[in-house]
């Protein structure tokens, strides 16, 4: 039977009716979701880091003058687009290991970047092309942040307010980057190391040699550390973990000295299969709070007009996302309806053709035709149920890696 049944799964963003489990609850998460960042609530790993970052930076975002991030992620650089909006007065310094040639090749019309943009658009996401011409965005490519010599060649301001390491996620790389960039961090500034317990990029088992895990029942993620206490950066100040409980890899002395002299804490914003956690480590350098001065001069509180503008921007983003999501679901439903109509037409045509052949051959048709009709309509009913189940699941779940 030549029935064109729609079987392909097209994942959609969660609708408001699906909240929880995964929906934006603040301005930063809205922006991260707008640009399809995995720091947000629905894209890929769904780290939800925006819940922690907004709690830390929400009240001082207008005073932040500079943000450096290691690793731009996908071609659309969703976090770069987010920071340039969220911190309206800050200069953004993205650093990535990708080569200029690689980025240029992928950015050609019809290339990998365009395909990614079209794919993300299915989920209501945007690509902010204009950020690359924004005078506040300063991209540096061909730089391995784990190599101090390469990192020191990057043109940076004397001091930076916020540094985020979203690079390889490997412990030894994270430590090397921390000690290279720490002198650049402003007094009172924040240094964040992301994805402490999620895994290394590229996704290989080499990470297990740096931070071994004894966890089980964690599927393909078993070579990632699963418990916070297993990670060297969970500094055991008092040496409580001894014997079998001691971390298999020890924190270096220079890192211990750094952590003893400054405030630090971990944020946990989600859980993965087997107990792996969405974790980031936050280190605040001793000194005057970033909120104690403006991005351009003396201390000045945010004006009511700035707050109103931010509120309006957030509301507009939420409205735009809701409209796009509704359009995607309507398109999906229309596609299902069209394909089911075509399937019914094909089935009817097949039955008519079968009856004609039976009549021409004067063969008895009653029992055989009835049985065939029952089978065909049963298959159609199963197809309809399958499509309805798929549509229901797509409204409740976002895309996964």
Brief sketch in words of this structure:
With 401 residues, the chain is α/β, with parallel strands linked by helices. Helices cover 40% and strands 10% of the residues.
Class from secondary-structure proportions: alpha/beta
Distance between the termini: 35 Å
The low-confidence runs, each spanning 5 or more residues with pLDDT under 50, are 1-12, 297-302, 397-401
Main sheet summary: 6 strands, mixed
Give me the Rg, rounded.
27 Å
Percentage of residues in helical conformation: 25-40%
Strand content is: 5-15%
Number of helices: 11
Protein model, in words:
By secondary structure, this protein is α/β, with parallel strands linked by helices. It has 11 helices and 6 strands. The protein has helices at 27-34, 49-57, 78-86, 100-106, 112-121, 148-152, 171-181, 207-210, 253-260, 304-360, 366-396; strands at 66-70, 91-95, 160-165, 185-193, 263-271, 277-284. The protein has a 6-stranded mixed beta sheet with strand order 2-1-3-4-6-5, sandwiched between helices. Mean pLDDT is 81; it is low at 1-12, 297-302 and 397-401. Pfam families: Methyltransf_24.
């Amino acid at each position: 039977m030549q029935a064109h049944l729609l079987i392909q799964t097209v994942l959609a963003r969660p609708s408001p009716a699906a909240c929880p489990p995964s929906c934006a609850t603040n301005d930063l998460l809205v922006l991260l979701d707008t640009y399809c960042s995995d720091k947000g609530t629905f894209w890929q790993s769904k780290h939800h880091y925006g819940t922690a970052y907004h709690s830390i930076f929400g009240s001082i975002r207008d005073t932040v003058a500079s943000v450096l991030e290691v690793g731009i992620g996908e071609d659309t650089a969703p976090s770069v687009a987010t920071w340039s909006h969220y911190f309206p007065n800050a200069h953004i310094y993205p650093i990535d290991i990708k080569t200029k040639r690689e980025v240029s090749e992928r950015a050609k019309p019809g290339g990998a970047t365009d395909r990614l943009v079209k794919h993300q658009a299915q989920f209501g996401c945007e690509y902010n092309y204009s950020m690359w011409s924004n005078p506040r965005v300063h991209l540096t490519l061909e730089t391995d942040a784990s190599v101090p010599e390469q990192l020191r060649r990057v043109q940076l301001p004397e001091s930076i307010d916020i540094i985020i390491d979203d690079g390889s996620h490997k412990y030894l790389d994270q430590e090397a980057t921390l000690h290279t960039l720490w002198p650049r961090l402003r007094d009172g500034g924040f240094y964040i190391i992301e994805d402490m317990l999620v895994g290394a990029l590229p996704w290989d088992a080499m990470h297990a040699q740096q931070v071994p895990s004894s966890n089980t029942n964690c599927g393909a993620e078993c070579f990632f550390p699963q418990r916070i206490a297993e990670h060297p950066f969970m500094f055991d100040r008092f040496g409580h973990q001894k014997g079998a409980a001691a971390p298999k890899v020890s924190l270096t002395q220079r890192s211990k000295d750094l952590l003893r002299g400054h405030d630090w804490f971990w944020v946990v914003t989600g859980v993965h299969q087997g107990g792996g956690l969405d974790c980031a480590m936050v280190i605040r350098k001793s000194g005057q709070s970033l909120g104690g001065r403006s991005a351009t001069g003396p201390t000045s509180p945010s004006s009511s007009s700035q707050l109103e503008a931010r509120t309006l921007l957030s509301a507009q983003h939420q409205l735009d996302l809701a409209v796009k999501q509704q359009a995607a679901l309507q398109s999906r439903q229309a596609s299902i309806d069209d394909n089911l109509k075509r399937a019914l037409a094909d089935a009817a045509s097949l039955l008519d053709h079968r009856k004609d052949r039976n009549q021409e051959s004067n063969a008895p048709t009653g029992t055989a035709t009835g049985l065939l009709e029952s089978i065909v309509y049963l298959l159609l009913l199963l197809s309809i149920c399958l499509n309805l189940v798929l549509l229901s699941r797509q409204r409740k779940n976002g895309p996964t890696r």
